[in-house]
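Lab notebook page, bench 4
Experiment: in silico fold of construct C2
Operator: M.H.
Input chain length: 105 residues
Purpose: comparison with the prior construct
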Amino acid sequence: MSIKKYQKMASKFAAESKFNLDPCIRMVAASEELGELAKEVLVATDYGTKSLETNDKLLEEVGDVLFELLLIADLTGVSATEAFFFAMGKMSGRVKEKGHAGSRN
């Protein structure tokens, strides 16, 4: 299935489930989910002291973040596919130009 289909699936589910579809509210929800993912990564690595091993909680939290991002993309009229390829192009350009993908010089 394509990213576009996942984006539409998230939007349809949210509308049918009567989620608050204000993009500002969804940004708060995405931020909350990203925080939960960060916590799970820290717990799974014992705060960076051991290697990360995928587990069901990480799968759940990545899915929650992805759902919110796809919903935000749809609510704001952004193609998640185009956004992904734009970001890949930007990261690739940075690596070629600076040797790393960070935005710092």
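Observations: The chain has a mean pLDDT of 95. The two ends are 38 Å apart (CA to CA).
Next step: discuss at group meeting.
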